[in-house]
Amino acid sequence: MFTRPAFGLAEVTWRWSFGLAAWLLLALFLAEYFDSLTVSRTDLFLLKTRHPVLILRALSDIFRGSGARLVEGFVVLAIFLTLLWIVTAGLARAATVKALIGHFRSGRPSEDSPGWSLRAMIGLSFFRAAAFLAAMVACLTPVAALRAFRDHVSPSSSVLVIIGVVLLVGWAWSTVNWFLSLAALFVVSRGEDTFGAMRTAIDLCRDRPAPLFAVGTWFGLAHLGVFTIATFFALFSLGLVRALPAAVGLAGALLVTLLYCAVADFLYIGRLAAYVVILELPAWFSPVRTRPSVPTGGQRSRAVQSGGAIDRDELILSDLPAPM
């Protein structure tokens, strides 16, 4: 992370490029959607009154009948962005992992690295996207279920159930996402296919649980600390809105958010590099073995001679005198 910042900058570059493209497409979609709405003179007059009730009445008339088009547009945009992310994430992850493996293999005897498969990387990215979609559906399911039984469930109980389900689903999704990210290492380093990389990742988790747990714990604590600090400064910036112009407070909060995202990307590439070390340098994590004892001078004189023959001058049990 510190000696080779180019890896972290590469991670920031591809993630932020995709994020910028996604936000740009979303802004263009909303601009086209708002441009398709019809605003009558009556609605414009109601908006100029600045009365909350009249403004709500005008907005209701403006957006009436356009909900279906909005939902359809969001679905098409989500599908397109998902496909774009699957391909982009597969290519970018293959490039970063290949660079990390090449960095840690430098100075070592050359090894024949099998070619990685783009289909396997896209397969892992597809499963990551499917896991995220399943997590979103699982989080929205209790909301719809509790809404149907709102007359029989208290609001406080509903909130507790929703929070519990969201935390459980978030933990399950993060675990699956971590596992699929780990499997990407074997696609590049060993040329595995999608399911073969998953099997190898399971074997690695079974063979080396302690190093993997240590890396995940320390980097997780570092990420949590950065998130806590960023949240504090973001809230502090928003709190300055009363004393400073609102644009200054919002700009400060946005700057803190961008810095947090950059640090999080550097931590992610650092954790990925630690997993590459576990995979490429297994001797670092092997148990310490005792060195064989060095023979003394007397023992060397009776050592095995040329051709592996036995020293004929050494007594054996049959040559010892029998006890009287």
Task: Please give a structural write-up.
The protein has 324 residues and is mainly α. It starts with a helix and ends in a 23-residue tail after the last helix. The chain folds into three domains: 106 residues, no CATH class; 92 residues, no CATH class; 73 residues. The protein is globular and about 70 Å long. The chain contains ten helices and no strands.
Q: What value does the Rg take, in angstroms?
A: 31 Å
What is the number of E strands?
0
**Helix/strand order:** HHHHHHHHHH
Unreliably modeled segments: 287-311, 314-320
Label the structural class. Answer: mainly alpha
Overall average residue pLDDT: 79
Helical content (DSSP H or I, runs of 4+): over 70%
Spatial shape: globular
Strand content: under 5%
**What about the largest sheet?**
none
Number of helices: 10
- Total number of distinct structural domains: 3
Defining key terms:
324 residues, mainly alpha, 10 helices, 0% strand
List the topology elements.
Elements: H1 5-35, H2 41-48, H3 52-63, H4 67-105, H5 118-148, H6 155-190, H7 194-207, H8 209-239, H9 246-280, H10 297-301
Helix pairs in contact: 1-4, 1-9, 2-3, 4-5, 4-6, 4-9, 5-6, 6-7, 8-9
